[in-house]
Design brief:
This protein has about 100 residues and is mainly alpha-helical. The chain has helices at about 5-15, 35-50, 55-70, 75-90.
């Protein structure tokens, strides 16, 4: 397994060898999304109401949305993307 750039940098600076962290989520993958500011702000509000971070809320919403569909995974992802596109269309023009 390759080391994270941050760990490699610290090793280069200090001369120490750092073991990679053991991640309990080795079977997961990172997903990065760019959202309109208005949508992100709304997610922040909902997350705060539920005492969650925005990332936790987004993960929960995506998981719930995919689980509610009884479609194969690829189709479920397409449905989730269509739902996000619809939410974007409903935002005021200045927020998109």
């Amino acid at each position: 397994m390759t080391k994270l750039r941050g760990i490699q940098w610290i090793e280069d600076q200090t001369g120490q060898v750092i073991d990679p962290p053991n991640s309990p989520q080795d079977d997961s993958r990172h997903l990065s999304l760019r959202l309109p500011i208005a949508l992100h702000s709304r997610l922040e509000e909902v997350a705060a109401d539920r005492n969650l971070t925005v990332s936790q809320l987004a993960r929960q919403l995506l998981t719930d949305g995919v689980q509610r569909t009884r479609l194969p995974d690829r189709e479920a992802i397409d449905v989730a993307i269509a739902a996000l596109d619809e939410m974007r269309r409903r935002l005021p023009p200045s927020a998109a």
